Amino acid sequence: MSQQVQRQTAVAETVASILAHAGAAIRMAAPLGLGKPNVLLNGLYQAVAADPGRTLHLFTALSLLRPVAKSELEKRFLLPFLQRQFGADYPDLDYAVALRDGRLAPNVRVSEFYMQSGALLNNSLAQREYTSLNYTHVARDLATAGINVVVQLLARRSEDGRERLSLASNPDVTQDLLDEMAARGQPRPLLVGVIHPRMPFIANEAEIGADFFDLLLDDAACDHELFALPREPVSPAEFALGLHASSLVRDGGTLQIGIGALSDAIVHALLLRQNDNAAYREALTALGGTSALAADIGGLDRFERGLYGASEMVMDGFMHLARGGVLKRRVFDDFALEQALAAGLIGETLQAGDVERLYAAGALPSLVGLPELARLMRCGLLPGDCRLDGEEVVLPSGERLPADLRELPARAALDRVMSSRRLRDGRYLRGAFFLGSKAFYRWLHALQGEDFDGLSMTRVSDINQLYGGRETLDALQRRQGRFFNTCMMATALGAAVSDALEDGRVVSGVGGQYNFVAMAHALRDGRSALLLRASRGCGAEARSSIRWSYGHTTIPRHLRDVFVTEYGVADLRGKSDEDCVKAMLAISDARFIDGLVGEATRAGKLAKDFVVPAAWRRNTPQQLAAALAPFARRGLFDAFPFGTDFTPVELGLAGALRWLKRESGSRRGQLGLLWRALRSRSPRAHEVEALQRLGLDRPASWRERGLQRLVLAALRR
Questions:
Q1: How far apart are CA 27 and CA 55, in angstroms?
Q2: C-alpha to C-alpha distances, 337 to 98, 346, 383, 523, nearest whole angstrom
Q3: How far apart are CA 578 and CA 556, in angstroms?
Q4: At what angle do helices 648-663 and 702-715 cross, to 10 degrees?
Q5: How would you write 461-526 as a 3-class SS string?
Q6: Residue 2 pLDDT more than 50?
Q7: Cα–Cα distance between 536 and 173 in angstroms, integer?
Q8: What are phi and psi of 157, to 5 degrees?
Q9: What percent of the chain is helix, strand and coil (3-state, nearest 5)?
Q10: Could you say which DSSP state residue 106 is in?
């Protein structure tokens, strides 16, 4: 720890301090996602880019950028939305913009271990600099890179004149990196904290003292909107996938999920299971019923005990589950108490007779000494401010209890005190970093009391693996763990493709996916479920997402466990290759089954006389839509189950612009568009508002008139 923190109030001053400390070669680490101090990084990038005598090598991940319009219509649509979503002053990361546009300063390198999905797929420099790492290995490998500066965005809270600081969105790697460097005897890097007034404050493991830093920057220039993700629509196929996946979740278990439409679909299904259980069961029946695996490891009933969240990423889904009464099982960092909870001996609120049960289970000592008294107060079994006086425990009220619990009357006296007390310091959600919507950040800001105390942001080395000295407690807390992650493709033999294409180009990164797959195998009752849509594209462009083989693998087939598509659940754990192929065929899109069967047969993985069951032939988008249609008419599967950041007019325009983009991708489509545009008549009353939103209600040129006709054609398609 540093002995004294230097406080600064100007970005330029902090940039100068970093340059003075690091010299000509800056090797900087910055958190992934939300934890980057954009304004400071921009100031530093500009300073280095203007000085050929210096170099900057930035090690980071997930450099978030606002979307960029690729056509005039997209620009007209996007700019007003982006200003509403991010404000007029949101500072994009200069280095990320320069890298995206192919003009990164020659004396700057950017090495990322996770990239915004698909954004840099065709960017040669970013592809060459990509570092393939499991999330839990980042600190270890960065420690060998000679990092001399670490920058981090912070949250601050003032209480009774006392300043509190938090690593907030990103306690994931910073502390692990410092510990790793110290263990190797390397010099401590300059640690720069940048206070952001709008960053939600998180306590517990994320809270740190000011002396953790060398420099603290508190400049009003750093006060801007946080990067907020727009909420995505959920398709019927994704809703179906979410229903199947939700049936694998056991009440009283543990949940890990990622972000995006598939995650939203799981959350929606879990809430439907909780709040409208009859409709939930009906929907699953309409999809063909639940899998045998669901009956074995999951359930369909409401959540009485609730779930505990242990996820590298904390996002909107956990907010909805907490609000909906699903995310409510709390875990306690006391092995004996956690054992008693897991065994059902006690609940989170103690009842008469619990002292005897705890004593019999070894969760209460025979003699209460100072360490035991501190533990009982910390866990809430006794009120705070108790003290030990000889052979008695003195309560704040003055009441005295025997410290020797070997006799029944002493335990009975303690039982009267403990009855109705609620256990404290429980956690209902632990994560390594958070990222989400504006509504999610507002929720974090508003948390109070037990809801605030029960959320913990901590090191990724704790969340993403069992190792680190508390494996037994972690395994107990994460009982019945269900680790849901998405992949792009899967093979019929159970390998998963999640992060890159077969030519080596990286779409995103492995992140923590391998960590959670491995942990699911390490936990006695844990399961890993990889989610994917059975097909992608439509019409003649449709392709199966389940392949016989593929030239890149993220999760190897020897770690195969569970796959889920919109057509069901494939349980591959411990199964033969033939059984795995059959299970994957059963959840494939029927349009591609025969091709897969042919390849499997030629490879000797299916018998030559294998016949595809008739039920698998019904795995089509049309059958799926028909099955869910009655529920959609009842409003159960709204495309935006958790609301949208777009207005109704914008939603209509978004669909129209997507259609225009798709149609303009071929010569035939372009000719069709021209024909439709030429036939477009004057705007109808209900179309005027959409044209006003694009500034095309009163075209001022032939070009604008042509754009107006294209938009009208798309709206009327």
A1: 8
A2: 53, 9, 17, 20
A3: 17
A4: 100
A5: HHHCCCCCCCHHHHHHHCCCEEEEEECCEEECCCCEECCECCCCCECCCCCCHHHHHHHHHHCCCC
A6: no
A7: 35
A8: -135, 140
A9: 40, 15, 40
A10: T
pLDDT > 80? residue 673: no
Distances (CA, A) of 590 to 31, 59, 201, 486, 545: 43, 45, 49, 21, 12
Strand ranges in 291-424 using DSSP code E only, listed in sequence order: 308-314, 387-389, 392-394, 400-402
Residue among 366, 348, 346, 360 at smallest CA distance from 407: 366
Report the candidate in 199, 209, 138, 146 with the shortest Cα–Cα distance to residue 174: 138
Task: Look at residue 312 and give its three-state secondary structure.
Answer: strand
CA torsion, ordered 224, 229, 231, 236, to nearest 10 deg? 180
Tokens at 385, concatenated: 């401010």
What does the alpha-carbon distance between residue 570 and residue 531 come to, in Å, rounded to a whole number? 11
Length of the chain: 717
Of 58, 56, 54, 62, nearest in space to 29 by CA = 58
* Whole-angstrom distance, CA of residue 31 vs CA of residue 151: 8
Tens-place pLDDT, residues 148-203 = 999 999 999 998 889 999 999 999 999 999 999 999 999 999 999 999 999 999 99
**Using an 8 Å Cβ cutoff, are 564 and 246 in contact?**
no
Find out whether 117 and 508 touch, Cβ atoms under 8 Å. yes
Q: Which two tokens stand for residue 304?
A: 């009485």
Q: Residue 425, SS3? A: coil
The answer to whether the CB of 319 falls within 8 A of the CB of 326 is: no
- pLDDT tens readout for residues 589-602: 999 999 999 999 99
Asked whether the beta carbons of 587 and 572 are under 8 A apart, the reply is no
Name the pLDDT band for 3 (thresholds 50, 70, 90): low
* C-alpha to C-alpha distance for 211 and 698, rounded to whole angstroms: 60
Give 61-92 as a DSSP string: S--------SSHHHHHHHHHHHHHHH-TT---
Q: How far apart are CA 331 and CA 170, in angstroms?
A: 22
Give the sign of the dihedral formed by CA 47, CA 50, CA 51, CA 55. Answer: positive
517 Ramachandran zone, left/alpha/beta (phi>0; psi -120 to 50): alpha
364 neighbors 354 (Cβ within 8 angstroms): no
Contacts of 131 (CB under 8 A, 6+ apart): 111, 112, 113, 141
> 568-571 and 562-565: which strand pairing?
antiparallel
- Please give the structure tokens belonging to residue 456: 């913990």
Element (H, E) at 527: strand 527-531
CA–CA separation, 256 and 513 (whole Å): 11
- The contacts of residue 253 (CB under 8 Å, 6+ apart) are 307, 308, 479, 480, 481, 482
pLDDT in tens, 287-302: 999 999 999 999 999 9
What average pLDDT score do residues 237-254 get? 98
Nearest to 21 by CA among 146, 143, 149, 109: 149
What is the pTM (predicted TM-score) of this model? 0.94
Question: What are the structural domains of the chain?
Answer: 6-222 (3.40.1080.10), 236-330+428-621 (3.40.1080.20), 335-418 (no CATH), 648-715 (no CATH)
Under a CB-based contact definition with an 8 Å cutoff, are residues 680 and 656 in contact? no
Structure tokens at 270: 């879990």
Mean pLDDT over each residue of the chain, to the nearest integer? 95
Q: Is 398 left (phi over 0), alpha (psi -120 to 50) or beta?
A: left
Structure token digits, residue 574: 């411990």
Strand partners for 485: 530
- Mean pLDDT for the stretch of residues 502-528: 96
Is there a contact between 239 and 627 (Cβ–Cβ < 8 Å)? no
Residue carrying the six token digits 């399961």: 527
Of all helices (H) and strands (E), which one includes residue 452?
helix 449-453
> d(Cα 583, Cα 568) in Å, to the nearest integer?
10
Q: Which residue has the tokens 């995310």?
A: 327
